[in-house]
Structure formats: C-alpha cells, structure tokens
Amino acid sequence: MTAETSQTLDRGLRVLKLLADTDHGLTVTELSNKLGVNRTVVYRLLATLEQHSLVRRDIGGRARVGLGVLQLGRQVHPLLREAALPALRALADDLGATAHLTLVDGTEALAVAVVEPTWTDYHVAYRAGFRHPLDRGAAGRAILAARSGHANDPGYVLTHGELEAGASGAAAPLTGVTGIEGSVGVVMLCDAVPERVGPRVMDAAREVADALR
User: Fold this and answer.
1) In terms of residue numbers, what domain contains 181?
2) How many CB atoms lie within 10 A of CB 212?
C-alpha cells in the first residue's frame, strides 16, 4: 500500500476477487483468514458491499458475489466492442463471413460485437445480443475448451448446424486476458469450413486479446 491508495477500498476489492474465485461462497472466518484481518473488519466490508448489491449472504451466512456486479459488467461491453472491432472487421472481410466477439454471461454465450462482411452477396445474419448455451455452437465450445485446457489442439473449434441449419462456425478462445472469458469466431453458410479459416480465427483472437490487455 502507498500513501495514495485506500486500504479499505483495497480490502473491499480483494473480498470481491476472493468471492469471484469460488462457486460456494466464503464465510466471514474464511475471508478473515484469507485477508489477514479480524472478523469485525470483514463484517464492515461485507455490510458496505451488500448496500451496493455487490455481495449477498445466503441463509447459512456464506458471502457470494451479488447481482450488482452484473450491472457493472454490462457497462464494460461497449469498451470491449470498441477494442475488438478493428480485428473483427478485418476477419469478416478477409473470410467473407460474419465475425463476432462472444463472452460468457452466466451459463450462456453472449455475442457482444458482430461485424458482417462488406463485399459478399449474402451472409449469415448474426446480431449482437444473441445468446446460446455454452455447449452449442463454436463460440461457446471454444470457451469450454479453454476452461478444460484442451484449447491448444488445434486451438480452435469447428461446428456445423448447431445454431442454424446450413451454417458452420469456427471460433478460438481469448487467452491471457485477466477476468474475461470469451472467444472470437465466424459463422458462414457452408457445409465444410475451409482449412484456412481456423488458423485465421486464431490470429484474430490473439489480436483481440492484445487489444484488451
């Protein structure tokens, strides 16, 4: 800590990070031990975070991340879109396919940025805000592959007809971006994805990840 920083704010942010890293929540005692502060301090931190809906406590007293965090997260999407658009535009026009940036939203994949090619006579309509289960479609499957550690072979995912009849998808996960789970991909009308599409999507995912760091 330096003279310019707030110890209380730092502790509050550390509480949120600790809660975000667990699926089952944490008790006051567990938070106290992890933070290295007494339980009274933890109670005050949780009470303040609860007032802003950033933390909730269940019947058993375990603290979890609150719904207020989702509201904050939604404000990040415009910034992510702006950072990703150059790479998505290049990807869409290079492949003549609809390109997209997709992020995890709960148990679903959410398209937060979509760019359609400028020179094709027809392409797949795919809109920002489109949601689908993580285990369907290339975008969600690429994210799940990264979670399981299987994203390095071959580094991208190909699917056909999982979200729209006659449409194929290719996607690669975003890697090395702290706090963001997502993928970059394309969707096109074809029965078989051309060989160069997978590696090209991987390159675009790296470009987007670099822009978000």
Assistant:
1) 73-211
2) 18
pTM of model > 0.85: no
Paired sense of beta strands 131-133 and 108-115, if any: antiparallel
CB 103 within 8 A of CB 184: no
Give CA–CA dist 178/189, Å, rounded.
33
Residue 2 falls inside a structural domain: no
* Segments in the chain below pLDDT 50: none
Q: Tell me, what CATH number does 188's domain have?
A: 3.30.450.40
Mode of pairing for the β-strands spanning 157-160 and 167-173: antiparallel
170 phi and psi, to 5 degrees?
-140, 135
Which two tokens mark 166? 């006659």
Which residue is associated with the tokens 């071959």? 154
Per-residue pLDDT tens for 133-156? 999 999 999 999 998 886 667 899
Determine, yes or no, domain membership for 174.
yes
Q: Is residue 112 a contact partner of residue 126, using CB atoms and an 8 Å limit? A: no
Is the bond preceding residue 78 a cis peptide, omega within 30 degrees? no
DSSP H/E element including 189: strand 182-189
User: Domain containing 42 — which CATH number?
Assistant: 1.10.10.10
Helix (H) or strand (E) holding 12: helix 7-20
